[in-house]
Specification:
This protein is of the alpha+beta class. The protein has two domains: 1-35; 37-201, Trefoil (Trefoil (Acidic Fibroblast Growth Factor, subunit A)), CATH 2.80.10. The protein contains three helices and 14 strands. Keywords: Signal. Residues 1-21 form the signal peptide.
């Protein structure tokens, strides 16, 4: 009896270690599933102003190589017909390894036929844009990730997103690379608002997978077209 008790006691650390390893594996699996799930993107504005009321809760859309904030109008209550809602997820960027800091990020740019592009920040203009690998590679392509608690989108480990107004109801998405309110990048008279980006899960249809170049996805790291 004593031997049995001693054996059980000796085995406890191994059992506890195994259980904890299983739990960590389950948490990691849930995290990876969350990151690979296709989502829309919604703008949240922490400050309360007239401008923030206009764009708060609006979705992010893609148009003409840039990301905009869709503001419904009387003419277009469902948004501009040529805009494509952000519908994307995290995906490893070719030849980049940011470890646990994050990955690249892609979005569909059209539904039929389905096609993906990489989301990136232009190094010169600070605009948040989309494009194929050749277009995006010279710029900031990641690491993209989310905050620990609220799962808000971050780039290079922080939230630096800003909405910039071009005109009435016309807002573009920027990233404040130098953390100075985009000084020296835009005219000082342009209205700028700090924003947060929230991933919102969407219902997806089953379609043939594609890579960010618009071709059939091969999952081949040696493919130079990425």
């Amino acid at each position: 009896m004593v031997l049995g008790i001693m054996t059980a006691i000796a085995a406890c650390p191994a059992i506890i270690g195994t259980v904890e390893a299983v739990r960590q594996g389950q948490r990691q699996s849930a995290k990876e599933k969350h990151r690979g799930r296709k989502t829309n993107m919604i703008v949240n504005v922490p400050s309360v102003t007239n401008a923030s009321k206009e764009i708060n809760g609006c979705r992010v859309v893609l148009s003409s190589d840039k990301l905009y904030i869709e503001v419904p109008s009387d003419e277009f209550p469902d948004g501009q017909p040529d805009d494509h809602p952000f519908a994307g997820y995290f995906l490893p960027y070719p030849d980049q390894d940011w470890k646990r800091r994050g990955e690249g990020m892609v979005s569909t740019i059209q539904d039929d036929p389905p096609q993906l592009n990489w989301i990136y920040v232009d190094r010169d203009t600070c605009e948040v844009k989309y494009g194929d690998r050749v277009t995006s590679e010279p710029h900031i392509v990641g690491p993209w990730s989310v905050t620990e608690v609220d799962k808000r989108v971050i780039l290079e480990d922080w939230e630096g997103f800003m909405a910039v107004q071009y005109g009435p109801g016309d807002w573009a998405l920027y990233f404040d690379l130098d953390d100075n309110g985009l000084q020296g990048v835009l005219d000082e008279s342009m209205l700028k608002v700090e924003v947060e980006l929230i991933r919102k899960e969407m219902k997806v249809r089953r379609t043939a997978p594609v890579d960010p170049e618009g071709k059939a996805e091969k999952h081949n790291d040696d493919d130079d077209d990425g």
